[in-house]
């Protein structure tokens, strides 16, 4: 990997400029050599670009930019047919692809969603006048219109109306607009179930890509899911008929007296929510009737429900793999496109550093010159000064690395005077020793037992006493000393680079804050004191399986969060619908006609001379505002006793309300099954991975080592000087100065990044990946001649084939 | 596969007899050439064997028998160290290895288990006097003693006391014996929790091998399971402390007033059984307290519980593969041992038919001569008359095939006269046509809707009317006609060979019986009428996924049944313990001091002039006899509202009773997780398999084709004539006659068997299997020289190495 060529060759000027111009020039050159269209472009960027048309540098700049766009599209899995096709589109593309725009998108979407806190059945504290919230809504919708128009500008009308998600969004926008205006005019809210569709604005956000992927995955898993669901429902119907025939002669059995009741109760039984109760009347009459229920539950709950999980898990597995494959190939194609834009006529075998640097300026503007060069060197595996296509394929793996000079000094205190060094070295050794670690574990364990015993002794009452308990102070002191020792022994940077230490640090900090709260008697912060037991989590570092599990947990966290968000979006839809139909329906002592009246009771009667409050509390599970709805929906998700909520609402409305609850159950079942399948898949994958790579167990990510000599640095400085990039030059000069200081001829840099799921998959599917590549390139080869004649006619839709054509011409 | 050598060579006498004698002779020849020990053997078999010592035939017979024993051991996964080591052991082995003995084992075990129906808290109808059931128990235990002594005789004392399961059984037997005698003497039952151990007698049965495997798998999955369980409990403790601090100031909250309550309620919350209720008092006070419960459930229920499944699933997967591997290698070793006993000095390269036939006579006594020869031919893949070791490795795959002459006639009616033939042919074509099939599906669907509508119209009351509804008769007639057409068109044998047709047949038969019951007014059989909707299951044939799912379901059925049995064994243990502690504890209106008193209420009061019965029914969930206990335990397994049962019992006994219920929950959680993992594994495996072998989707098992010429048959007859086996000769003669009749020179036979999981695994792990074999043979080679010096000293423990040694001598 390390070689010592005269590095100057890297920095040669690519010589002949404008070997290939940017697509703007190219496209219109195809149209007949006139640049009129480009000149018409109204955005300043486009105008500027046209003014400098003849300049080779400018053409290169355009190439860099387009290559960077291709690479971004590859990374974000954006399809290439949305690639900007002309200068106007490019301007819109650039406008719509930066974090400011994304943030605007996100905030309008959130604003629209949060409006439901203040609309009609509002949270009491947040209620707003109809005029206020309707105006806010209208404002947000206008912003969305603006966003959409930018998108249309970028995509062009043709692509725009073919893009399904965008079209749905447009329709929803239209409906919302009309409704908002109607509300403003009538000054009263009508039944607006369409508010449930507001979610689409959030889903369409650039930042919510993970949610979109989850939704896609859910929809892809649906067909097999529905098949098994039908099987489930079919058995349910058969058993409902059976149950009706068997148990309806028993008049004391309210569960099977009609076919509808029979069906509903068997549906609820599927969730086990009414289990022993539904059996009891018939069981009391004839003990053998339990066989019916046992058979039903065995088939439906223990067999078909698990089958459902199996089918979803299997589909999920399959989809994950296909997704990984298509993303991999998509990235590869993106790299190919970028590569074609960066090679020169003179040297078609690779990309020179100059062009690579130009690409990175657009792709990662924040990268410093040193990192750019290191990335280039890391990519370059051959002995030539050019990065070949084969090397360039690793672009995505390498560009994410964070580079740092490899320290010669092992510890932060190596430069200190001798005495200090020895002290710190001692601390370092102590802190790293097993004895110290196990002592700390013992302390934590003792602390845990202490807390448990202390809490057990309290038995209600005065546990937030004025005087701080001494045990708290003792343990906190020990933890404080440990923290101090570790920070000094390892250096704050190394200390905080470990997730576990970070955890220790924050828990100790919280404990300290809790102590403050206790000492200064700040009641609202007492809850911090209660977080002390979290310290005990450290004990789980002791066993390898726990470390594995917790590591995987942290790796999974982003994905889990996006799944949670997906679930919340479903919640939102159902909450809106629920609020529109069931707001204010349930109240204390409301459902006296139903079988669940007890749960809704609120009686305040006097027995003897004591007031006894008989509370059923279930009236709290209502749809009176969106927060209450969310809690109610969570209770429905947990499933236990959900039929009490369902029956309560049903008794106050019609029995069609059951449809709402049953649909919700099925939807959450889908999402939950997907979540379970996801967790299963991720863990099994991870464990298989560890089993396959027993040796690489302890590594914390991907590390690459590269050496740079002084001449190379000076070479880069020369290059930058020519392009007059002052900050970059200054940065590099600093490196040279440092080398001079330590008298080194070269410095070794370490590139690090954490391991992603994609890296793991790469390793797991190693063999298959090669096949995919071959298959892919075969397919491409076979497609190219076929597409060539067609590309001229459909040029506006297929920039790719155009690009390919122009490539073959050269 | 098919070759035409002069077949006579197969039937040559192996010439030199006694190339190697059976292990009996061998072993004692090792002892110094005297046969005294053998002569001492008291069993008649051994005496007979010694009398004929000098006869070569006899020695061959012994070799055949031992080879057959090896092959049986390989098939049943019996370890070779239990291989009988001398004539006495052999006699005991043969005595203890036949179905009569197995049946005796099973029935004594069942008798012991069933005794708990009649003992102390007995099922009222089955109550027996103490004297009666104690005597019965003593009798059964004596039978077990006899069985164990036979086993000791076969294994030898040394092996016997090293065999863990047998030793545990002996101890349990001893305890049970003493207790039974104590009961007989005292004439009263004491607290006999040890009755729960009776299960071991069932588990140890030969027929319960699958249960043993399941138990082993459960125990192997335990370590990772316990790890995650600890994580679960740890979080539970932390949250219990948190919950206690947060909610105990609220005096209207009974769930968190002490740390113990807090813990118990969070444990119950883990099962979601008390979900919205446990949250309600604090939620009513402060809506934000729901965050505590949402976080707890998200972490514990949705994350760690799924993690548990993932870990168990992963372990399960791994264990399944390792199990398959070890069984495969075990079988291979068994085949090697058998092979060594069957080759002759003159021809060490393979087994001749004569010896193979001798082996099969012991291995599968019911096999007819034709099948033996066909098995031999199917094994023999080379052109030589001998089966080499490589071919012999396929023994287990081939020996299970059922051979049938390939019919020249396609249909059963081919031999009928022309007119009849045409009629039947027409029916055949009609029955096989898609139109007919889809018509039937339509009829079934219409029938389904009809039943649904009919039931819906009934709405309680007179649904078992005297006059049979005409729709019933119409549909039954259609099904009857279909059945008739199919039977005549396909022939009864082909018709019933399909599982689906069998299903149709039995459902139609049941429907007919139901009609009879209706017509002749036999009330107890009315339930048959109710089975009609099952007919609808036929609709699921329409879609491939359902066929796949249902096929897999049937394939899984034996394994599922054994898992169910395993669960029942756990139930039994818990039922006994529950009966001993909680029998008669729960009764109507019993638990007035507890929070669940309502569920146990039974009030018969008068409102106005109507008697209203207020029934809680939960007093029915008791441990008053073993059947009730089973139902109660099933309710605990389903988990919903289990805390009502727990709290009821707890309020009548001590709060330590909770331990029983919590332990039961954890145990069923383990078993249920294993069941889920098993279903997941089986389905995912199956689906991967179908994905891998898209083409072989439609095949119904493994089929092999072999041709036998007339000369070959005559050759076999000659062979059998010499050994004077009259029945075999007659059988074979029949084949020759048949060939003569049709003027054929040869007949083609088809060998069929259904595909097993092992076959699927073989195909799935194809590549790895080769590696395993190589690794295995490497290991064996490296072990052989090592063991050789040791084998003389440990000869009584290691018959294998002895065998190997004797092999190397020759």
TrEMBL record, chains A, B:
Membrane topology: Multi-pass membrane protein
Chain ranges of the Ion transport domain: 104-323, 434-684
GO cellular component, one term: endolysosome
Biased composition (Low complexity): 789-810
Subcellular location: Early endosome membrane; Lysosome membrane; Recycling endosome membrane
Residue ranges, compositional bias (Basic and acidic residues): 773-782
Cleaved signal peptide residues: none
Entry superkingdom: Eukaryota
UniProt keywords, alphabetically: Calcium, Calcium channel, Calcium transport, Coiled coil, Endosome, Ion channel, Ion transport, Lysosome, Membrane, Repeat, Transmembrane, Transmembrane helix, Transport, Voltage-gated channel
Catalysis: reaction(s): Ca(2+)(in) = Ca(2+)(out); Na(+)(in) = Na(+)(out)
Spans through the membrane: 100-118, 125-146, 166-185, 222-247, 291-313, 438-458, 470-488, 500-519, 563-587, 659-684
Spans annotated as Disordered: 773-810
Family annotation (Gene3D superfamilies): 1.10.287.70, Voltage-gated potassium channels. Chain C
Family: Belongs to the calcium channel alpha-1 subunit (TC 1.A.1.11) family. Two pore calcium channel subfamily.
Oligomeric form and interacting partners: Dimer. Interacts with MTOR; the interaction is required for TPCN1 ATP sensitivity. Interacts with STX7, STX8 and STX12. Interacts with JPT2. Found in a complex with LSM12, TPCN1 and TPCN2.
Function: Intracellular channel initially characterized as a non-selective Ca(2+)-permeable channel activated by NAADP (nicotinic acid adenine dinucleotide phosphate), it is also a voltage-gated highly-selective Na(+) channel activated directly by PI(3,5)P2 (phosphatidylinositol 3,5-bisphosphate) that senses pH changes and confers electrical excitability to organelles. Localizes to the early and recycling endosomes membranes where it plays a role in the uptake and processing of proteins and regulates organellar membrane excitability, membrane trafficking and pH homeostasis.
Protein's UniProt name: Voltage-dependent calcium channel protein TPC1
Lineage of producing organism: Eukaryota, Metazoa, Chordata, Craniata, Vertebrata
């Amino acid at each position: 990997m390390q070689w010592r060529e005269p590095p100057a060759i890297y920095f040669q000027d690519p010589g002949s400029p404008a070997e290939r111009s940017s697509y703007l020039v190219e496209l219109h050159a195809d149209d007949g050599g006139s640049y009129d269209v480009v000149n018409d472009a109204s955005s300043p960027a486009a105008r500027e670009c046209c003014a400098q048309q003849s300049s080779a540098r400018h053409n290169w700049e355009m190439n860099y930019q387009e290559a960077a766009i291709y690479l971004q599209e590859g990374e974000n899995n954006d399809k290439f047919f949305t690639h900007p096709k002309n200068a106007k589109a490019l301007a819109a593309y650039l406008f719509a692809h930066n974090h400011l725009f994304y943030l605007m998108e996100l905030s309008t979407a959130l604003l629209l969603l949060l409006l439901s806190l203040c609309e009609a059945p509002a949270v009491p504290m947040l209620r707003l006048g109809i005029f206020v919230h309707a105006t806010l809504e209208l404002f947000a919708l206008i912003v969305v219109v603006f966003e959409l128009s930018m998108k249309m500008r970028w995509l062009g009308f043709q692509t725009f109306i073919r893009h399904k998600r965008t079209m749905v969004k447009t329709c929803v926008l239209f409906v919302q607009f009309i409704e908002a205006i109607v509300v403003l005019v009538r000054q009263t809210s009508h039944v607006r179930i369409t508010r449930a569709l507001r979610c689409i604005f959030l889903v369409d956000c650039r930042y919510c890509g993970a949610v979109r992927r989850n939704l896609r995955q859910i929809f892809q898993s649906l067909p097999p899911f529905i098949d098994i669901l039908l099987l489930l429902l079919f058995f349910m119907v058969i058993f409902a008929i059976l149950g009706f025939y068997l148990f309806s002669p028993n008049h004391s059995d309210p569960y099977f007296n009609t076919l509808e009741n029979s069906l509903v109760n068997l549906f609820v039984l599927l969730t086990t929510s009414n289990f022993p109760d539904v059996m009891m009347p018939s069981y009391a009459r004839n003990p053998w009737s339990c066989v019916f229920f046992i058979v039903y539950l065995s088939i439906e709950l223990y067999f078909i429900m698990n089958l459902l999980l199996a089918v979803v898990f299997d589909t999920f597995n399959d989809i994950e793999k296909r997704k990984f494959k298509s993303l991999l190939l998509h990235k590869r194609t993106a790299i190919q496109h970028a590569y074609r834009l960066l090679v020169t006529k003179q040297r078609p075998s690779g990309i020179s550093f100059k062009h690579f640097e130009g690409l990175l300026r657009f792709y990662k503007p924040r990268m410093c010159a040193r990192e750019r060069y290191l990335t280039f060197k890391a990519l370059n595996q051959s002995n030539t000064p050019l990065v070949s296509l084969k090397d360039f394929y690793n672009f995505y793996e390498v560009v994410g690395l964070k580079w740092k000079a490899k320290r010669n000094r092992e510890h932060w205190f190596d430069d200190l005077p001798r005495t200090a060094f020895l002290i710190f070295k001692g601390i370092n050794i102590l802190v790293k020793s097993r004895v110290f670690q196990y002592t700390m574990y013992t302390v934590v364990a003792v602390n845990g037992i202490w807390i448990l015993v202390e809490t057990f002794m309290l038995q209600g009452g005065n546990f937030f006493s004025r005087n701080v308990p001494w045990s708290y102070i003792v343990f906190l002191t020990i933890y404080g000393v440990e923290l101090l020792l570790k920070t000094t022994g390892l250096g704050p940077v190394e200390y905080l680079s470990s997730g576990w230490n970070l955890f220790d640090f924050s828990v100790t900090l919280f404990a300290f804050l809790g102590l403050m709260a206790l000492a200064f008697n700040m009641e609202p912060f007492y809850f911090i004191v209660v977080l002390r037991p979290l310290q005990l989590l450290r004990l789980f570092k002791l066993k390898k399986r726990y470390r594995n599990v917790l590591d995987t947990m942290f790796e999974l966290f982003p994905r889990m969060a996006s799944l949670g968000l997906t679930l919340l979006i479903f919640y939102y839809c159902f909450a809106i619908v629920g609020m529109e139909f069931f707001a204010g329906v349930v109240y204390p002592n409301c459902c006296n006609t139903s079988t669940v009246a007890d749960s809704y009771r609120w009686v305040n009667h006097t027995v003897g001379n004591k007031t006894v409050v008989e509370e059923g509390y279930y009236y709290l599970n209502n749809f009176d505002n969106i927060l209450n709805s969310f809690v109610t929906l969570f209770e429905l998700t947990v499933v236990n006793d959900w039929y009490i909520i369902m029956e309560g609402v049903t008794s106050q409305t019609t029995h069609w309300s059951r449809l709402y609850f049953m649909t919700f159950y099925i939807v959450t079942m889908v999402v939950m099954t997907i979540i379970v399948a996801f967790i299963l898949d991720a863990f099994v994958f991870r464990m298989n991975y560890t089993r396959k790579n027993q040796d690489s167990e302890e590594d914390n990510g991907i590390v690459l080592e590269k050496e740079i000599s002084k001449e190379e640095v000076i070479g880069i400085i020369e290059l930058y000087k020519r392009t007059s990039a002052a900050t970059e030059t200054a940065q590099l000069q600093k490196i040279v100065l440092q080398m001079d200081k330590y008298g080194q001829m070269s410095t070794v840099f370490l590139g690090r990044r954490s391991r992603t799921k994609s890296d793991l998959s790469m390793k797991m599917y190693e063999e298959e990946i090669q096949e995919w590549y071959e298959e892919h390139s075969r397919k491409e080869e076979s497609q190219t001649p076929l597409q060539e004649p067609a590309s001229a006619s459909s040029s506006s839709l297929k920039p790719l084939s155009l690009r390919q054509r122009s490539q073959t011409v050269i």
